Amino acid sequence: MTTYISPTMANGTAVDAALAKAGTAIQPGLSSYFAKADSGSVAWSVTAANAIQAAMALHVEVNGVIHIITAGTSITVPASPVAGTDYAIWCKPDGMLEATDSHISPPAANARNVGGYHYAPGGNASAQAGGNTTPAINPYSCWDLKWRPACQDPRGMTLVANHFWADIYFTNTDPDLNGTSKYNVTIADGSSPPKIPLALNGDGTATYGSLTWFEANSLLAAFGKRAPTYAEFMELAFGVTEATSFGNYPPSTAMDAPRTSRWGVMQATGNMHTWGATQGGPAGTAAWTANTEGFGSTYNLPNAARFGGSGTDGADPGSRCSLWGVSPSVSSGSISLRGVRDHLQLA
Predict the structure, then answer these.
(1) Range list for CATH 3.90.1580.10 in the chain
(2) pLDDT higher for 284 or 248?
């Protein structure tokens, strides 16, 4: 049920009485207004595998009118959602909520994008034994305008322990086209290097030619993200089936249920080594070495950490698996990358 806002909002903000009438202009300063009854949680709640609703009362400006959306208001969702798809939540000019697979084209003229979620190809881990193969909305992927990752593009990310956001999937070979986290696309690694981002003077075709620690971190930074620290990796991978591996290096981002984490991170361990932000222990000699692809030299360079273990590592992979024995200038078909970003919460 949707109604128009009363002259005074619940949080005390004064609003012109004319707002109680449909179609009137809003008071100056309230354009693009979005307010939640509880700023300490996301605006949406998942009630079934393909059902989502407003978790609280919302005040949303759309096309010059502020609407009150009551808690429990259902969001119209696609009847046959596509697994691995990011859906946008729109508030339409009539105040109704609808989810579509486009984050650009609204379902009605002047509708406003106010949030989104990821419809995952499988369910999250409920214990430390991986997830399942039943497609469902990942509840930790839900975001709104004031509860989201701090990067520009929130698609394909999941909130880890209300702490930080992690890419659900490994980075792919064409992140300018797909974003850094997308289902069923080629995984970027040393054998399938990613295209150089346009933000880093890429031309839409040229690739790095390798995937070193330097290149991985530069790529993620171009999208407002970074590689995880060791502590962050342990958090994002929690819930996987420990001490197991996939058995091979997967070519594409996919669901691997035994190694899905509590937060819905896919292929979290035992698939591809993941470059970490952390370094430690000398890998280079005590001399200047030109090993940064032409971006200066390093002196007594530390090793770069790899997390999670690969698909051929047997029982070694897990949420605390780490390798500290290679230089950051190494590139391999068994090493990929996964982005993380801080949590943004606005009042």
Answers:
(1) 164-345
(2) 248
